[in-house]
Design goal:
This protein has 5 helices and 7 strands, in the order ααβββαβαβββα. It has 196 residues and is an alpha/beta fold.
């Protein structure tokens, strides 16, 4: 574009190649940086039900990441339960802040009709394990080290969370942090639970 062309001109007026070294891992770093910037731009926390945006984006994408033991977990296997599916990273402050509320929500709801799944975005199993230990969190974590499984799900930054009904259909998406165990939010999710 005009700006990039302007930046690559010397005083002679002749274009030159930008003096930027691109390491082989740079695309991954740029992706993470971009996600971080989006993370910082997403809304702050709260129990505002307007953050639970009704989903109109079509069918539920496939998702089969591995858990911390290396075992594949298929989202489709959770049919019959309401699933809160959260995409997060340890470097995303709003993600970290909402995780205790997600854990508390999971403890309040019946395990035979509800499941919480958290998908870590782009980090190693070692880093995630250390983070969970540091924070004292006991959450079901799935890994997407290469960030390819998350592509159909995460397009606006982190955290991004979906509420999926017992038939496997996405009902809501939340962009940014939410107070997941607030009474109004809990009641909305309870309203989706299949009859026990």
């Amino acid at each position: 574009g005009t700006l990039s062309a302007h930046l690559t001109f010397q005083a002679t007026g002749r274009p030159r190649r930008p003096a930027v070294f691109v390491a082989p891992e740079m695309p991954m770093r740029l992706t993470a940086l971009f996600a971080l910037l989006l993370c910082l731009a997403l809304p702050a926390a709260g129990a505002d039900l307007s953050k639970l945006k009704a989903w109109d984006g079509g069918a539920t994408p496939k998702l089969v990441p591995k858990d911390l033991d290396g075992k594949p977990r298929n989202l489709a296997d959770y049919r019959g339960k309401v699933v809160v599916l959260n995409f997060w990273a340890t470097w995303c402050a709003p993600c970290v802040k909402e995780m205790p509320a997600l854990a508390r929500l999971s403890e309040k709801l019946p395990a035979d009709r509800f499941a919480l799944l958290t998908v870590n975005f782009g980090e190693s199993e070692k880093r995630v394990q250390a983070f969970l230990k540091e924070q004292g969190l006991r959450l079901p974590v799935l890994l997407d080290r290469r960030m390819d499984a998350s592509k159909p799900w995460v397009d606006r930054g982190l955290p991004t969370t979906y509420v999926i009904d017992a038939d496997g259909a996405i009902r809501y998406r939340v962009l940014g942090e939410l107070e997941w165990d607030a009474p109004a939010v809990e009641a909305r999710i309870r309203s989706l639970l299949p009859k026990g």
